[in-house]
Amino acid sequence: MKRLLSNVKYAIFCLTAILSVQVAMAQAPRTIKGQVLDNTGLPMIGATVVVVGNTSVGTTTDMEGKFTIKASQNDVLSFSFLGYTEVNEKVGNRTTINVVLNPDNVSINEVVVIGYGTQAKSDLTGAVTSVNMEDLASTSLTSVDQALQGRMAGVEISTTDGEPGSAASIRIRGSRSISASNEPLIVVDGVMDAVESFSDIDPSDIKSVTVLKDASSTAIYGSRGANGVILVTTNEAKGTKLNVTFKATFGLSELPRELDIMSAEELARIRNDYQMHRETNYYHKRPDELSYANPSLQGQGTDWLDVMTQKAFSQAYYLSLAGGGKNTKVFFSVNYKDNDGIVINTGQQHLTARLKLDHNATKWMKMGINLNYQTRHNDQAKTGINGTGTTVAIALNPLLSPDATWNNLGDSATNGGSVYNSPYLQAIHITHMTNRNYLTMSPYLEFTLTKGLKLKSTFSYSYFNTNRFYYSPSFMPVAASRKYGGTARRQETINNNLLSETTLSYNRTFKKTHKVNIVAGFTAQNKRSDVRNTEGVGYLDDNVSYYNMGSIVDKRRLTETTSATEIQRFSVLARANYSYKSRYHVTFTGRYDGSSNFSKGNKWAFFPALAFKWSINNESFMSNVGNWLTDLSLRLSAGRSGNDAVSSYVSQMALTTNTSGWLFGDTQEVAYYPTRLDNPDLTWEKTDSYNVGIDFSVLDNRVSFSLEGYYAKTHDLLLSISNPQVTGYNTRYENIGSTQNIGGEFSITSRNITRANFQWTTNLTISHNTSKVLDLGMDYDYIATYEKNGIMCYGYVEGYPANSLWGLKHGGVWHNKGEQKENEVTKTYVSYGQSLGYSKYIDVNHDGVLDDNDRVYLGTADPFIYGGFNNTFRIVKNLQIGVYFTYSLGGRMYNPTEFEMGNTRMRTNKYRYMMDAWHATRNPYSDIPALGHTDDYPSDRYVHDASYFRLQNVNLSYTFDLRKKTRYLRDITLSAACNNVFLVSKYNGFDPDVSNGTARIDKGWYPKNRTYTFSIQIRY
Among 525, 572, 752, 779, which residue's CB has the most CB atoms within a 10 Å radius? Predict the structure, then answer.
């Protein structure tokens, strides 16, 4: 027995020893060799090979794609290369491992964010386009709108202002409304109205941007999606390991373009010429009696652009931490930007902090919260008679000095001896700043009720506080000459937004044939805005300014107004997607919206949409085509959306009061009186749209393109119209009129070269949209939105494009008396005056009167086509070069700044072409009007081709992979970029890519700048 026990112990000991040796052998690292090839059989140089779970053990492949690494039997090796699908291989008993990496097939398999969920791109039935922001990281752009301009077909992004932090104008498939908003809805991480504009979001925080363009895609947002929807998904934690990213960006900005305007010497010469020939008593003056006896002594004079602009420095710092455990993921980021403006004493400081927390409390319950806080300070331009520093600077008399009092502005005859504030003094001494503070929080709960069935409830609160301050001190020339004292203004706006959303979603696939995705729910929203405006004139102590506005001596010169608006919305929504064998896809969407903007009986409306997609490449009869065809799909959709984006209470009667009151006997009574009629029948503006699309890709998505065509008709327009004067009311809103948009979009992505050591990818977008005003539903057939001297420059006219330009047709000038006598018979022309050298215009109705009846159509502000063209080159693995162009062809544009610098008045500087103005002896055949009169009617003289071709961005980045050299650092990336490199355009202003939110009218906006940036990114 003892011997048996002894044998058993010996056997156990031997077995344990053997197992221990085997375990030790399995755990002992050994040398693994191999080769990494691409799908064409060529070696991949610089492919990364690491041990999963221990990235400190890793290597890269050599020039022949070969590698050597130490790994244990139980280890898993990860093989990766940028742009290729990662492959994992368990070591096992092997000592040689050869791997083939295939290019990412992301175009079909990627998951796209859509309204209230996600969907595989292969199942999408609507017109949706998406951009991965990681692909744009090397551009070093600090503005989302700049980064996205031209990259998404059907999305037109124009600059409203080049000032740091300014928002862009975004139009998705054109403008639909006339009086209501045309801006798209921006949704951040599923929360509507979480930001006021794109400029509130830092590009480093964004994971992807998805744009919903047709009714099938936007119908889930009902009335909020009438102008398209932009879905922004921010970064989140991945895995459990802590990942730290730090990025620092430094930039230098400059004014990229100067205008062809006169020097002081040239201006002095034409002023002398003007004095000698404007009146007969000047004809006999000797040259030494003129204002500038020797113009050549004036030289270049004051370069006002140089005085008012500067080289602007910018810096930005970004830090993010991401990680967590098995059930909890946390992402935190903080970003700080400090940008000087190219106009002196302008700039912005912007701080953003974002927290995203997700926690799996149980197997069936998930919870989380998104927090976002922002604070920004803007020093803005308030430096001109009618606009910004550059607006006035380009028009200023170079004969004046920056510190001049500007008495008479160089010509008392044309300025009445007025005193003006120098724009330089305004920029230095006037305070014009804005402080904004934002806070958004969005907690959520998600329950998994059963397989595929989830219930999610989100509550969001957003707080926006904006304070605008303005102070002009008492020593400014205008205030001092009139003994006004200092002027202070302060405006505070507080917006509170509450949003509650609950959705029930069901997502299952049955028998690998029937795929069902259903979402239903409801949303409730309350938005309130409180505004307080305070203004005082007559402050004697400039140190008080806006800090203590009640300290004004004369209280009668202190005014304060307050207002409050509120809107409630409630919606019930549903969407059902069905896919059969990945061949036939059907989507039905419906949303029932209620809005407090309308009266009882008209608050509610239903907005449905239906879409169908046929994946032709998955049909059995396509099986013989071969593997070269990756995707061939046909999409059709139709639907209706609504718009309630007008001011609150427009359907109700408006009352106002006269604060001085009325005298009844000895008593002064204050009473209210109506200023606007109510309209209880006011209801939703509606858009019916139809879309057809074709998706095509070949060779494992080496080449893929999408072609879209659409038609949209907007009717029951929410129009603000003027009442007849006899009614005693100014305006009222009505549902009248209709517009249409017809267009097409084309986008193509081509991976031209996909070698392991060299990759070249090209992206091209082409967009076209034609808008038209079908009906205005009124006695008159036009609505003027911009006029000058009684002539409509911009407006809406039945039968013409929505963004049409109007004015007089310039017919040259009166060269001699014979032309005038001939015109008395033909009645071809009409003019402001009959002196020789005066402009003559086409007399449309031949009545001999110069008025608005002589205006003609001068073109549309909308381009014929617009888009972008991008090339990205990746050399070996670490070096990336990007070259990105944007373009716009066919639009027309007013340059109102030219009204001052291209007209015949003498109070400002002039474009150099005015040197060739009509002159009785020197230039008697010129068609440029003579100097010295007040004829500055809007005409085609001031309308220009707004086409342009721009090298938007050139960037270069290099990444140092440090995973095999250090335990903690992943990589370091160095980037250099230039934005707005060059512009090719015939436009005679700063930049044709401007917009006031409605039309392409260049009112001398703060110009776009050229920026050089350098950045360093470190990832741990």
Answer: 525
The residue behind tokens 């599923």 is: 190
Amino acid at 403: D
DSSP letter string, 70-86: EE-TT-EEEEE-TTB--
Specify the CATH number for the domain of residue 51: 2.60.40.10
What's the whole-model pTM score?
0.83
Distance CA 99, CA 1012 (A): 42
Q: Which two tokens stand for residue 154?
A: 């059907």
Which spans in 422-506 are helix H?
Answer: 423-429, 477-482
In sequence order, which residues have a C-beta less than 8 Å from that of residue 284 and are 6 or more positions away? none
For 677, the token pair is 């009629």
DSSP string computed for 609-635: EEEEEEEGGGSGGGGGG-TTEEEEEEE
Residue 124 counted as domain residue? yes
Distance CA 654, CA 677 (A): 7
Does 146 fall in a domain?
yes
For 935-983, the DSSP string reads ----BGGGEEE--EEEEEEEEEEEEEE-TTT-SS--EEEEEEEEEEEEE
Dig out the tokens for 667 from the structure: 């008593």
Same domain, 169 and 263: no
Confidence of residue 282 (pLDDT cuts 50, 70, 90): very low
Q: Give 536-580 pLDDT, tens digit per residue.
A: 988 888 887 777 888 888 888 888 888 898 999 999 999 999 999
Provide φ and ψ at 199, rounded to 5°: -65, -10
Residue 815 belongs to domain spanning: 780-855+892-936
Among 94, 92, 49, 91, CA closest to 69 = 49
Q: Is-contact 302 423, C-beta < 8 A? A: no
